[in-house]
Amino acid sequence: MSEAPVDPAQASGSVPPAEGEAPAQSKKGAKKAEAKAKKEAEKARKAAEREAAAAAQKAASGGNEDLAKDNYGDITPTTKVAADKVQLKHLGDQHIGKSVKLRAWIQNSRMQGAKMAFVELREERNWSIQGVISASAEGKPVSKQMAKWVGSIRLESFVLVEATVQKPLEPVKSCRVSDYELHLTKVYLIASGPEVLPLGLNAANRAISSFEDEDPSAPAAAAAAPAEGIENLSITESAVAPSASLSTHLNNPALHKRAPVQQAIADVRMTVRKLFSEYLDSKDFVQFEPPCLIGAASEGGANVFALPYFEKQAFLAQSPQFYKQIEIAGGRKRVYCIGPVFRAENSNTPRHMTEFTGLDLEMEIEDHYHEVRDMIEGVMLYIFRGLQERCKEQIELVRSIYPSDEFLLPEPGKEVRLTFAEGQKLLREEGPEEFRNVSDDEDMSTPQEKALGALVRKKFGTDFYVLDKFPEGARPFYTIEDPENPKVTNAYDFFMRGQEILSGGQRIHIPELLEARLRKKGIDPASPGIKDYVDVFRSAGVPPHGGGGIGLDRVVAWYLNLPSVHLASYYPRTPKRLTP
Ligand code: ATP
Prior knowledge:
Blueprint: H1 8-11, H2 27-60, E1 72-74, E2 84-85, E3 99-112, E4 116-124, E5 127-134, H3 144-151, E6 158-166, E7 177-191, H4 201-204, H5 219-224, H6 246-251, H7 253-258, H8 260-282, E8 286-287, E9 293-294, E10 306-309, E11 312-316, H9 321-329, E12 334-342, E13 355-364, H10 370-390, H11 392-401, E14 417-419, H12 420-430, H13 446-460, E15 464-468, E16 481-482, E17 485-489, E18 491-496, E19 499-506, H14 511-520, H15 530-539, E20 545-551, H16 552-559
Parallel strand pairs: 1-7, 2-3, 5-7, 8-12, 14-15
Antiparallel strand pairs: 3-4, 3-6, 4-5, 6-7, 9-11, 10-11, 12-13, 13-20, 15-18, 16-17, 18-19, 19-20
This protein binds adenosine-5'-triphosphate.
């Protein structure tokens, strides 16, 4: 197709008259029209400018149109944030100026005037960072409405944010990530916190104010429940540091567990478990699984939980003792197990629970039961040294809330092993007045143990030691007596900061001896549970063996110097508490 011919008039830039228009004006008239057109164009330009300025002002000053409306609000299935995901622990200078996305809890927030808000975002544990949201003059990506909305998100809500990483003017002391801050450009609410938190995070992360505990499911406690509320917290630190009772903590598990201190304790707990297995695996132990449900209250009936079991009765195992020994009888040389242990004791103390986790081991003895004592000492020292290495940060965090002196360990080769009698002698000679007359034949009371712990620390510079050769009367029927002195046993307890964490010793492996000791203890060898146990040693020759049972909860609690084992447990079970 050929191009249309070029009109010379158009080519010169003047507009030709349209059909039906008046013929061309005079020169003077044309000039006048041109001036008028110019004036009108200028007028239109100015009006457009005014309109744009008004629109910007309107948006920035909270006018009706919210130009950032797509950048915030409740999350929907179509919400998309394209920025790269970042984990706070990996944030570095390489991220400065970049846009990132993060899912986190709002742990604190504060409006700064009408257009700006500060929020503290916590991703996990105590990994927190300051977020800044500030409305721009154009009203996007952040409008005044958006800043206000972000500043009003309830505490402990879970959000998705997009933000630009920047260096703050000064390090942000209140957040773990202090060298960077997030300039928020998108904020979506995934799950809202309640209007009033039943336990503020600041309180959850402080030392427990009282160890009074009552399960809310108990009838008396239900009536008293409202009194357990704790004041809500804002970012402005309250002048009086808030704290809450154990009861408030345990009745609000989500918030109790969110506290970085609880997560640090849980990390230490799981590390102890891991270190226990690691060491024993390296020493050729094999793990096994004992049952929790058993058919007879074999270790003395008084403190055992009974429950209906079809047409019979079952019991919850008070320890895996018999099963560890059956494994040895079954040809295993070294075994260990980790699992729940149940005690129906109405002991309302910071040391006791009705369910705790046992770290148990049993091994063949070749020459002397001290092989077992030394193995247990070895595993405990491995745990303590491992914790110092692997949980430094967690230990420091816990210490900032529950202060403690460093857990002192003996120098290699200088482990402290006293006999029970030596321990009592030390107490009589150097301990407090009230222990001047303690006897070598009677078990120690808790105050005695604590006083001895303080003496050992002072004298030997260690918080970990062994008391060996316990009096016969203080040990169960399966413990072997010292062949040279039947008043004492080949049995020991291990202590941390003056508190017992383990009982163990050599077991009787000869059925006739076992029966004789049962009778001496007033137990009928033919009684339910006991007969089956004795028969194991009758059914096959069993090598000499010994072992011990460690309370995981106590190891964690006393290592960290917590005021109660209930803080070291995931879900403490006590005579007063069966929930959550
Ligand atoms: P205690 O005299 O303190 O009640 P125990 O002598 O009954 O303890 P053992 O039966 O020897 O304890 O249990 C071995 C270990 O298990 C203890 O050293 C302790 O660490 C732990 N343990 C025992 N009972 C409890 C309990 N009720 N709650 C928490 N841990 C426990």
